[in-house]
## 1
Amino acid sequence: MLKEHKINSFPPGGTSVQYLKGIGEKRARELVKVGVETIGDLMQYYPRRYLDRSNITPIKDLKIDETATVVATIQTCGIQKGKRARFVMIVTDGSGSLNCVWFNMLQFWQKKFKPGQLLALSGKTGYFGGKQMVHPDFDMLSDDEESPYSRDEFLHTGKIIPIYPSTEALSHVGLDSRGFRRVIHWLLRQYGDKITDTLPPDFVSQLNLLPFQLAIKNIHFPESFHQLKQAQTRLKFEELFMLEFMLAFRKHTILQTQKGIVFSKVGEQTKQLSEKLPFDLTASQKKVLYEIHADMKKPHPMYRLLQGDVGSGKTIIALIAMIIAVENGYQAALMAPTEILAEQHFLTFRCYLEALGIDIRLLIGAQRKAEREEILTALQNGTCNIIIGTHAVIQQAVSFQKLGLVVIDEQHRFGVSQRALLTEKGLNPDVLVMTATPIPRTLSLTVYGDLDVSIIDELPSGRKPIITSWRYENKREDIYKFVKSQVAAGRQAYVVFPLIEESEKLDLKSATEGYEKLRSGIFADKQMALLHGRMKSEEKDAIMTAFKSGDLQILVSTTVIEVGVDVPNATVMVIENAERFGLTQLHQLRGRVGRGGEQSYCIMIAKYPITEDAMTRLKTMTETTDGFKIAEVDLQLRGPGEFFGSRQHGMPELKIANPLTDSKLLLKARDEAFRIAGDLKLKDEMLHYLNQNTFYQSYKNKIEMMRIG
Ligand code: ADP
Ligand code: MG
């Protein structure tokens, strides 16, 4: 029984699950690992799919190599000794029989399965002396007194059965799908009627949504698919609304309460820079610059995302924004994810800034102590106007005299807390974050929902699309011959070796070996160098400078050059073991070429055989150079969770809604959230309602942690 005295309100959203009948400490410990701490979490532990009669295949209709679900009774089962011991089970459903085989945890299965039990089994059908499934997914449907379903109920009424996600550890403590079904069924029967709504009931009925209580009951044990759909809609809306409301709330709070800096002047120095630029800004660049400056003039802090495909020219925009900050008497800081990129920005900016009398410095981890001290002092007393650096600039020892603008380059490479640390070094400084990872609008409304977005949607004129192809290794020789011909024509080339494992050491080994082979072989007469992350700063510096100036013709590298590096004369990018790279990475790497007026090439070499997903990635690269399309395919392949590591963004995880497929619902939730958060009275009423709610508490805590920095 639920120990009532532990619970003083219902829904007991905030009460630990360990006080529930049938849970206890041991199970509670395992549940925490899948994010279920409270009774509210357990009620919101949604099924991952549903079984009903319409998606069950009779065994006689199973097709070889196709995945299907059968519902069948165990006839015989047991361990078979032999060359390779196995657990074998024969099941039948009246239409035929099927073998199921497991090669691991034999004792565990031996204990678990008994003839007569009714199971739902899902897997790919194979053939081995008869139809067979190896390591099928299964769900125990057997009737026993505690099961919410009896065999008759299932087989004759066609009830929809929820299938819950489980882990091996959870199964060991009895919480397989069936265990969850039992616990949640009991929980809802006992307490379901006491669940109050998480959103104001008027609001819910205005939007034609199911009340929360009904939605929770129906998401677990729906009577029909129509009911299930309604429940899903309500719960998805709720999740998206909570997220957007917090984003809206934060945005309006910043607007209304935080006082920011007014950068009113755009004067001589900015003008001088425009005159010095060797090119005209594109229309897109002018537009975003206008948007950024309009923000900087306002008396509240800017929180703006600058999005633009690889090579679209974001860097110069950052530079101009920083000059505006300096002209108005403030300091500016730019943080980049790698030393190579920070150094490159530093060198480019210094060329422009020296003539303007603006003091710019570089701060990276590898500097000597005396040099570092000197920079820190200059930042503190204000003689240094602009600092470019890696995460070294967020170290505690770094303090500014008057930090007014913070720019984060390639922001997706930074964690949320790192970004926050930099903004905290100023007093509500303006913030500009830049990214080359274009994401579909609906997704950006969740990840960047409280930022204003500026988009550069064109490349500088005169760029030719990069010719891209992929080949298996047997064509390597031809490929390198081609590289040679490009070098002979005065161009430069990159050869990139991949991350072999999550270890920089092995990573380096593949690049080193590849480098040695090329240097002693086909490129023996060329100037080339190896670049990797473990080199000393000065070495890296020297190599990049030599490559930039054209002294080096071929640069062999690990993925350290993935982001940002800008050498317009480089026209060939060869990617070894390209099948190992993600799409976004491939696109970034390709973006290192095609930065000048010459025709550029990207050639990806794959090691046979490759997976279907890898094939899709390589093909996508050859079919388009549009970063937006590439991001969409990437998202489809990986799903939003992985695509945007939610931990990194400090985003609350979405349990049921998917911003891609539920875009209509998302837009509706966002409209409502911003409408309410923008109206003082409505906002207060909503907050008051939400604050009473225990379901909402854990959500609120997660969102509290979400900071753009
Ligand atoms: P990214 O947006 O990927 O950071 P960069 O800012 O590094 O791109 O710009 C890519 C290259 O294009 C650089 O060599 C830069 O000098 C050049 N560039 C930027 N803006 C223009 C422009 N308007 N016209 C021509 N070249 C430009
Ligand atoms: Mg860049």
Note: The CA atoms of residues 304 and 451 lie 5 Å apart.
## 2
Amino acid sequence: MNLILLGAPGAGKGTQAEVICEKLKIPSISTGNIIREALKNGTELGLKAKSYMDSGALVPDEVVIAIIKERLAQEDCKNGFILDGFPRTVPQAEALDAMGIVIHKVLDIEVPDETIQKRLSGRRVCESCGASYHLDFKPSAKEGVCDKCAGKLVIRKDDQPETVRERLKTYHESTEPLCDYYKKTGKLVVINGQEEVAATSALVLKALEA
Ligand code: AP5
């Protein structure tokens, strides 16, 4: 199954992508994670993306479209994939269509902006493996230490309140129009993402069975 996860920053796309990945045994592809990895490794892509990402703006379409094209051509995507954070603009969705990629379902995880601020202020990520935690909703066993690799947990640079406001603005302007884009295809399923993680996961898995 080829899936897209839509939703505002902090709506829980990454969290739910992990659940689907586990259930369907298909890879989860996060453009945000790919760009952060490039940044960590100091590659040309990382350097190009840094200023956009740090300010809460979107990285230019042509850059992310090239990333996705290359990633989807890999062997592990043959039996399906989850796109987490792509497409984020109508031109990105059109580029995906132009690649001849068939999308079976688009899950839009809806969460109000006020809840987003709270979630992102409590998020901590592992600086080594990228695993994501939350101080209240998904704490690590030992404070400040990653359960998976014992790496140090840090605040993501773009999770500062000012940058979150900018990311939400960008989301409403550039990404929300994708809901209409996919509604027209009959593939959009809206998921209430306001409840606790397990409740949202139950809705997500039910939507995949329908
Ligand atoms: P990206 O990394 O994709 O960030 P994002 O979309 O802003 O998403 P997040 O990772 O912040 O949130 P999420 O929805 O995955 O939530 P999560 O599950 O972590 O992109 C970063 C940047 O890269 C962009 O700003 C842009 O610059 C660039 N970029 C990436 N893709 C691009 C593209 N296609 N085009 C252009 N630029 C692009 O949850 C958040 C927190 O809440 C966690 O702590 C979690 O534990 C907690 N939580 C989750 N669900 C719940 C729940 N139900 N209840 C309570 N807490 C919860």
Note: The two ends are 13 Å apart (CA to CA).
## 3
Amino acid sequence: MKADVLLGLQWGDEGKGKIVDVLTPQYDIIARFQGGPNAGHTIEFDNKKFILHTIPSGIFNPGTINVIGNGVIIDPFIFGKELENLKANNINAENNLLISKKAHLILPTHRLLDATYEAAKGKAKIGSTLKGIGPAYTDKTARNGLRIGNIIRVDFLKKFNELKEKHLRIIDSYGFDYHNYLLDGLTFKDYEEQWFAAIEKIKSIQKINSEYFINQSLNNNKSVLAEGAQGTLLDLDFGTYPFVTSSNTIAAGVCAGLGIPPGKVGEIYGIFKAYCTRVGSGPFPTEQENKEGQKLRDEGNEYGSTTGRPRRCGWLDLTALKYSIMLNGVTLLFMTKADVLNSFEKIKAGIKYKFGGKFIDHIPFEASYEKLEPVYHELDGWQSDINNVTNPDNMPQQLTDYIKYIEKEVNVPVAMVSVGADRSQIIKL
Ligand code: GDP
Ligand code: IMO
Ligand code: MG
């Protein structure tokens, strides 16, 4: 078997968690391959809502194994809270959850470093989720990191303290007052205490060499879905650098983040919202800082799953979508949050940019620094409630037209349209 991949094509929060949950019954294994608790993946069913940060979104199907791959970085404190929340809802994640021994740890001081660097950047800040992502991946690439497999080794505490002291020296050199900085409402000392308590919990979860596990599973005809976090436009190399995350969010990240050879990657499912959002700083050409943007935010309840920050909102950007499709080799598209456009009289889609006095249909290097002016194609809205539509024959003509227009522009079929947050609110085309 080959491993399929599901990932975001915009700036994250495309609804990946919901779609993974919808697809999970078709898969034996769901595996996260990158990112960490900067992710917030929402799943809703039976009037319950869960937000997962580290644990794969297949966890609600007892028959599916969930793997946290080597490319993921884990904050034991946050991970422990996720386990607790699931347990409080009678879901024992331990039964079908495996963690790669090679996944790196986010230390409490990685979070302090994140806050230190962001504060030092002032107005130029990335708008990070402040979960320690950049500093933890930095230590990984600088070959200083601690991994999940280290926690049972006799020298773990010594290594932890060495790294912590090094971090604190950097933090002190910036003059950052970490004693008065709260981490998820806790002082550094209390956070560290709970971080270590959570390490004990991780000890009882099965830890594996996930590259062997995944490859053996594929050889034994088990189906695997790799779940992405963040989105293509936040990719470390191809996103709107420096306003990006610190991992490769694109399909190529699956090979490095799970140990799957390129030839064993199958379908690539690309998720995009019917419009566009971004949380944090950085360029966003089709952003609407006006009534339309506010309406998208209100109708779409566009507030961050991880930080609660209001998301910036705007129209679909087809140039960016084509770029993402190219980078990932997307074979099937899934459009989410179509229902958010229910009451819009007109819907717009950016088709090219005006830049330096010319029209362009690609994203230039300068896009990270200078403003691209989008040119829009306008379509009629459906102006009706589609939240309960599940049969494609009952879709309003204007919605069909919007989808057909997107398919024609990007040359990849749309396989599903999501029309609400609940698991059941989906139209299979
Ligand atoms: P992810 O990070 O890609 O998993 O996405 P998030 O969970 O951060 O953000 C998506 C938000 O939209 C969540 O609150 C979801 O419950 C919600 N959502 C997902 N699909 C739909 C949809 O089709 N319609 C509406 N209205 N909400 C949706
Ligand atoms: P999911 O998986 C949306 C954004 C942050 C910030 C930038 C860098 O839920 O789609 P970081 O914490 O990585 O240092 O932040 O990336 N960001 C996300 N935006 N969804 C996410 O994840 C994100 N993860 C990071 O807002 O702009
Ligand atoms: Mg999210």
Note: Residues 8, 12-18, 40-42, 44, 305, 336-337, 339-340, 418-421 surround guanosine-5'-diphosphate (ligand 1) (CB under 6 Å).
## 4
Amino acid sequence: MTSILILNGPNLNLLGTRQPEVYGTTTLADIEAQCTEAAQTLGLDIAFAQSNSEGALVDMIHDARGTHDGLILNAGAYTHTSIALMDAISSAEIPTVELHLSNIHAREEFRHTSYIAKVAVGVICGFGAHGYTLALHAMARHLEDGR
Ligand code: DQA
């Protein structure tokens, strides 16, 4: 069965209480449950993980090679700074959807830059927690027919 790794970066463990006016009140556990349900509908296997550490995220992307068919990555603030995560995706050669709860382009200037977008198949942002379901649908389609 096609397997997707859904990886979450720094501070996303605090979803639910972290700046709810920006990120909503849905917790990361709620999002994982929502992803599990969407994956069942799509006939996908998923693994769901979070780390606050850049190195741990790099390691998980390396390990995804040969284990998972696709990566959905909300890299949090590392999106805007991490050449290491960009290089990990290129090195692992794994199709990646970049994801954000908020619309990073409607926020501060420093959030408009994304190192992940340079190596991603596509980007989903601004749809809150529902973006995870959208990303799973986009990844399923991409793995099926390359679009
Ligand atoms: C975020 C957007 C980032 O700019 C921010 O640093 C986050 C969350 C989002 O999901 O909207 O931590 O990735």
Note: The mean pLDDT is 97.
